[in-house]
Queue: 2 jobs
Job 1
Amino acid sequence: MKRDSSILKTILFGTTTTFLAISFMIFPKEAYDASVRGLTMWWDVVFPSLLPFFILSEFLIRFGVVSFIGALFEPIMRPLFRVPGSGSFVWAMGLASGFPAGAKLTARLRQEGKISSIEGERLVSFTNASNPLFIFGAISVGFFHDPALGIVLAAAHYVGNIIVGLAMRFYGNETPTYSNKGQEFSFKYAIKSMHEERLSDDRPLGKLMGDAVHSAIQTLLMIGGFIILFSVLNEILDIIHITAIVSFVISIVLSMIQMPNELSPAIIQGIFEITIGSDLVSQTQETSLIEKAIVTSFILAFNGLSVQAQVASILSETDIRFRPFFFARCFHGFVAAILTYFIFDWLYIDSTDSSTTEAVVPAFQNVNVTVFHNMYEFLLNWGSFITIIGLSVWILLLPMKSKTLQN
């Protein structure tokens, strides 16, 4: 029975790949345009925004800062989420830098034996999130031209992540391989852990810097490949009308929950890729803002198959399974959508409403949104230069890396 199932998978994968390859040859212009769009997004925004966080995380791990944070936050993270205190570092970096940083750091902790496989599956389920720069800069301001909407989307997204983390604490019963359980809060113990971790890595600073840059750029190249692939795949499926067929099914579900059918094409696009889906939601006519916000929250929380494929590739280097992460994304999508429905009227302040006091709206928007919007604009203007510099440094380091491996 197992052999028959394996043969069916082989036939399915071979047929699907062949079909897509033929589609690419039939529609070369469309495939090329889609690949350029994906490459542009990676080149201008994704690479320059993630590179500093990936490099910095390598230093924080090697200098023992993660062990320090883990010792301090063990009494909090263990009871709440049933993960080691070092999970707080992954959570913070995941929120600050966005996906798939949470998955990369979770895999790193597992490779170093700081968490068990079950703890890794719990941790990655709620640390892989959209960063504020993307929610406020790209989505709320760039697509919706409404800074106040970013507050609603961010609140639903991050509170939903916490709910997912609390729910996943009941998943699995494996005994942790690394634990400071029972250790009370101790600053002295945290310093000792950090010192021991730093001493365990005797690499010179120059080599550590080179390894950090090399690891970060390798991961970013993989991410870029997935972004381009799913951008082209999304376009091809739309051309051959498979998207329209699935959209019809989605429209039936939307009708059952009293949501506009016009949102179904955007949902399909968002299931594949977050940016395209969110942009289509903002352009959808004959729908209210709250309905658009609900669908956008779902798309952001689901992460899109493009991001999920990136996470699957990163986790494949460990024994952390992808399936729990996928179900957590589905759960997060529905939780974020429901939260958006209930908090929209409470948090959203319409700047076009004459009844809104002038004293409230500017302060509320400027403090929370303007910084992220300016950062996003900076990436659009200068991100390509950062990418060129990063790739140039990586190319220069390649001969040194090859020589080290040979020795």
Job 2
Amino acid sequence: MGKEKDIVERHLLEFPEVHKEALELVTGQKWEFDPVCLRHYPVHVPRDPGMVLTFMEQDSAMMLADSVVKKDVLLSCLENQTKPDPNMVERLMASIANQYLTRAQDGKSPVPIVGGVLHYGDRPWTCLVSLSEKMNTRCKDLPPVFQDFRIRVVDLGALPDEVILHMKTDLRFFAWMVKAKREGRPYTVLEGPVDHPVTTLRGLMYLSGSKISLEETEKIIGGKEKWTMEQVFTCLTKEEVNVAMLRGERKGLRQGRQQGRKKGREETRSKDRQLYSWLKNANRLDDYERALSSEEAFDACYEEMKRETGQ
């Protein structure tokens, strides 16, 4: 996490079209506006702590603005997590309150603020997502004046395949990798162009547990503007940084071997029953005992049965 996380994941969400898709995941609805209407919103400007709350760093904040009437419409504040944070409810609540208070201090009208969390972790999000849950009680049991606060968490590794496959931005490559890691399955390459190959490559490297500098990434990409995931995947493979994908492949191979052994046992039992039935009908059960003495003897007797029965 830390600085490297900010470099990789926050910067991906700072592309307007990616931020819009993340906003749609968080809110569970489509937004009918052009991503160019989103502009970066300052969330790290130092202020007088005596006037407003201390600013808390946010991973990505963008303002949806109406260019015709020159009016702010909605502020979207998104957080990225690679590990569940038990304090995320309070963190996001403070960040949103901070934005409302700052606009008031600046003499600006309040606008709706949407906050949410994208979870990139190897394990599901398990932390509570509302104040009432953290108080271990139900809202209806609380005083009527109690103001609950609930956060929206999008667990990328838990998204259905069809949702990921219908995503339009580079965020789908992140979600696909997280889900592959989560389920321990090999990473398969998604079709379609990679709009931001440098950021996406660095992000996938980060999620796979590898480290690479911006200069190294740009050298790999080589200034080429149009990339597909197959090309990016090739870079990952060449640099031997697909640790997570290999982990999934190893698990898949283990499962395959287990299934193979199970299938082999079933086939052996089937052959054994066939041979026993044939030798019994031929009044040759003594040969059955000899057939069980070794694999070679069994195979020889089984082949004789196939020839005699025309199998």
